[in-house]
């Protein structure tokens, strides 16, 4: 009796202090979120949402569900996730770009198992299609970005360039004009062939030459003649001195820093670059244009879409309750009250229709980017080999930068991926 009384008194004391002990029925979801920028940690775990944060607001709105949420740098994300999976400790919810390997290994739950139908219908269909394998959707889009040519209006004008280059020939002419005008003080063109964005560089140049990762039938075509010509052209820009000096080590963030400081005249970058420049207190007059392409080809924007997915947990005592909790997480996250702040914070593009109106109302420039995204091409991430292809094209570029033969390198990569 004394023991029971002690427990009752302890509970009363906790309640009087405003401390509510977790219920035995509480569900805790392990969540890993990718770090998109310096504000991500603050928004999810700091004081970024009206004096509170996402986790606090979610738990207040969803009694009985706790979030064990961790924000992980993109540099460490793949290693962290792989280690967790190897230790049979996969997160319940993961925010990352790739998904096909996890799905093919039987680690993921189909989206239909946990995503409310009303929310699922709110996603842009073209985004959802990027996560479908054999008719099953395995992930939902977190957010998106599109890429365009950004240029320093004043630098181009001072170099006598009347308009942004549209073709590869015009890009070389503009680069030479900038060299002539500024010498080594300004780099004409930004190139990132690092492990951070090398796959994007491959896309820019190959898509701009009627090539790409796959052919019209969706089969890998990494060593196509169009691709060989495109990568040779890109490497040629570097060898001619038209680019930043170290494309193999200078990431897009380094390029964006150079651009914000007025040391780089042109680069291909995501739509959030203006926000990045403002955060760096850059005092430049910038404008956007289509990504330059070869004669006879057309400009293609690279659409980049990250995802949110849910892993299986066969040890969960109540699968239905767990699935419902994951659904509540998604519903809360994508509620425009929360989601618009998340997307606009870093200047990204939304993945749900319900957020479009609010974003355009607050920043009319979003409409132009939404139009660009509508015609964007995406990486072939639904193919199981994508992660190997992604790393492979980066290695090809980096070896080509040191004198490797582009055709031989792409032939070898094609054979490695396809077995023929």
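^ structure tokens above, recovered residues below v
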């Amino acid at each position: 009796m004394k023991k029971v009384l002690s427990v009752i008194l302890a509970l009363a004391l906790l309640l009087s202090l405003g401390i509510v002990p977790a219920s035995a029925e509480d569900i805790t979801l392990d969540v890993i979120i990718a770090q998109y920028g310096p504000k991500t940690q603050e928004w999810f775990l700091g004081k970024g949402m009206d004096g509170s944060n996402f986790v606090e607001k979610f738990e207040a709105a969803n009694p009985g569900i706790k979030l064990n949420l961790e924000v992980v740098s993109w540099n460490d994300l793949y290693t962290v996730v792989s280690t967790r999976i190897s230790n049979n400790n996969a997160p319940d919810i993961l925010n990352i770009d790739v998904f096909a390997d996890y799905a093919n290994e039987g680690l993921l739950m189909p989206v239909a198992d946990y995503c409310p139908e009303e929310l699922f219908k709110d996603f842009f269909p073209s985004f959802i299609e990027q996560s479908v394998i054999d008719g099953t959707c395995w992930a939902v889009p977190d957010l998106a970005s599109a890429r365009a040519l950004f240029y320093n209006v004043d630098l181009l004008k001072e170099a006598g360039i009347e308009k942004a280059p549209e073709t590869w020939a015009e890009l070389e002419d503009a680069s030479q004009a900038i060299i002539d005008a500024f010498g080594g003080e300004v780099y004409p063109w930004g190139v990132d062939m690092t492990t951070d964005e090398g796959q994007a560089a491959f896309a820019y140049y190959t898509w701009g030459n009627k090539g790409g990762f796959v052919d019209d039938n969706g089969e890998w075509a990494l060593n196509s003649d169009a691709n060989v010509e495109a990568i040779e052209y890109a490497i040629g820009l570097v060898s001619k001195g038209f680019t930043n000096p170290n494309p193999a080590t200078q990431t897009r963030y380094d390029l964006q820093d150079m651009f914000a400081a007025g040391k780089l005249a042109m680069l291909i970058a995501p739509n959030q670059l203006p926000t990045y420049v403002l955060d760096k207190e850059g005092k430049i007059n910038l404008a956007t244009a289509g990504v330059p392409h070869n004669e006879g080809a057309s400009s293609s924007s690279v659409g980049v879409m990250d995802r949110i997915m849910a892993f299986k947990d066969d040890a969960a005592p109540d699968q239905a309750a767990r699935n419902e909790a994951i659904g509540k997480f998604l519903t809360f996250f994508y509620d425009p009250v929360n989601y618009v702040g998340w997307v606009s914070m870093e200047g990204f593009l939304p993945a749900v229709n319900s957020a479009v109106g609010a974003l355009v109302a607050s920043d009319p420039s979003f409409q132009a980017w939404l139009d660009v995204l509508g015609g964007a091409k995406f990486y072939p991430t639904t193919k199981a080999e994508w992660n190997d292809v992604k790393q492979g094209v980066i290695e090809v570029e980096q070896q080509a930068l040191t004198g490797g033969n582009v055709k031989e390198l792409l032939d070898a990569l094609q054979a490695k991926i396809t077995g023929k």
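Residues 18 and 389 are 53 Å apart (CA to CA).
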